[in-house]
DNA sequence: CAATTGATGTAATAACATTACATTTGTTAT
DNA sequence: ATAACAAATGTAATGTTATTACATCAATTG
């Protein structure tokens, strides 16, 4: 159920993100793809839009940047909220899932009759290497 | 321990945010304050920076916008993570705190020896009124 | 093969945020 | 009071992120 068939631009953008060891902004991706014919931001944003839809890429709201999903083969990605620990120093991102957190937030929104569509959880700080 | 003494610009920005029934972008705030002599974005950003520091205002990362703290008199604001339920339709924001969620995220980052500095939790969706 | 749909290319512009530098105001020490 | 310092402000320019508008191209289908 994985291995989405990607178009040329989607494939290029996904490759760049997969190889990166840090989140990348749309414009950084654009620069990396100039050699492959990319000329305008929209080419990147359109590919990202689809990749986000496919669950292959995540957007980090606190960074205005994007990362390839760390668990692309894990269905969990699609059934729970994704949370991120983001190092402010080296940019390393740890992606995780916690159903207890999900349940707790769920309980809250249900109590408010709020209909959740998308949840963002991002922890900014220092990774073990950088904090040492 | 509340009632921070604000400067003129800080006070103006805080007033605008307090009266608003929705999050506001820095540029929207700027427009509201033209009559009071505001001319440049930096005047707003500088005031916001201090207000964020004082815990009187929150930044919504998924919206690039700002809201006055809903619980200014509650010390809880300063000792736990603030979470938001944001209506995509009417813009209403529900601010809440949940120590169980905090503890759970804490446990995760501790297990990774990650040193958390700031945590963002934002639930986008539809409020009870708009979902009906 | 016409019609539709999805993807792409390109330019322009909008929206959000920061850097740099000059000036003013407020506070503290003497 | 005033010198010295720190904090806040004013202004312009620029940098960064994201979208709108419009034209073209490619794949699919009736």
TrEMBL record, chains A, B:
Recorded GO MF terms: DNA-binding transcription factor activity; transcription cis-regulatory region binding; zinc ion binding
Binding-site residues for Zn(2+), renumbered to this chain: 87, 90, 127, 130
Cofactor-binding details, from the entry: Binds 1 zinc ion per subunit.
Keywords, ordered alphabetically: DNA-binding, Metal-binding, Repressor, Transcription, Transcription regulation, Zinc
Stored SUPFAM superfamilies: Winged helix' DNA-binding domain (SSF46785)
InterPro entries, per the entry: FUR, Fur_C, WH-like_DNA-bd_sf, WH_DNA-bd_sf
A GO BP entry: negative regulation of DNA-templated transcription
Entry GO terms, CC: cytosol
Known cofactor(s): Zn(2+)
Highest rank taxon of the organism: Bacteria
Family note: Belongs to the Fur family.
Identification of the protein by name: Transcriptional repressor
Lineage: Bacteria, Pseudomonadati, Pseudomonadota, Alphaproteobacteria, Hyphomicrobiales
């Amino acid at each position: 159920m994985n291995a989405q068939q990607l178009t040329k631009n989607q494939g290029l953008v996904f490759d760049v993100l997969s190889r990166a060891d840090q989140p990348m902004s749309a414009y950084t991706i654009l620069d990396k793809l100039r050699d492959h014919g990319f000329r305008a931001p929209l080419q990147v944003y359109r590919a990202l839009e689809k990749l986000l839809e496919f669950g292959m890429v995540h957007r980090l709201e606190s960074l205005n940047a994007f990362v390839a999903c760390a668990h692309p083969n894990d269905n969990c990605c699609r059934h729970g909220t994704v949370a991120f620990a983001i190092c402010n120093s080296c940019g390393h991102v740890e992606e995780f899932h916690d159903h207890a957190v999900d349940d707790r937030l769920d309980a809250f929104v249900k109590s408010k009759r709020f209909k959740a569509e998308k949840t963002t959880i991002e922890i900014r700080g220092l990774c073990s290497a950088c904090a040492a």
